[in-house]
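check this one:
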Amino acid sequence: MKISAADERLLSVLREDARASTAQIARRLGLSRTTVQSRIDRLEQQGVISGYTVRTHAEYEQGQVRAHIMITVLPKKMAVVVKALREIPEVRVLHSVSGSHDLIALGVVGGVGEMDVLTDAIGAIDGVERTVSSIILSTKFER
């Protein structure tokens, strides 16, 4: 899907605050409200914008333990592993990656003990060969 530079700027503004009004977005971009709304509608119809989400405040996140969990999957077991990971609510994001690991999951839990339980649960999934975890200390920026 190819989109224009103006659409990219619109997506950037929406990533910062998807709840901003059309008028606020239009002012930031120097466009009319109707232009902004029609661009948003078109991007939704094209599937470029597939939904909106909640971003929590940094103070709330500081009370959570987050980790990137790198997962190596046995041959021909990817679909089974992905399905099992989708069922674990503490797994917030799952990426398929190149390199020495096959998947990277973002795990979010209330404490270190819970992270231990989560990584053990992931390691016990049929088809998971190995996991390596890195706890996230801080987020420098997010877009």
User: Anything to note?
Assistant: The chain has six helices and four strands. The longest strand covers residues 65-73. The chain has a mean pLDDT of 92. Residues 39 and 45 are 10 Å apart (CA to CA).
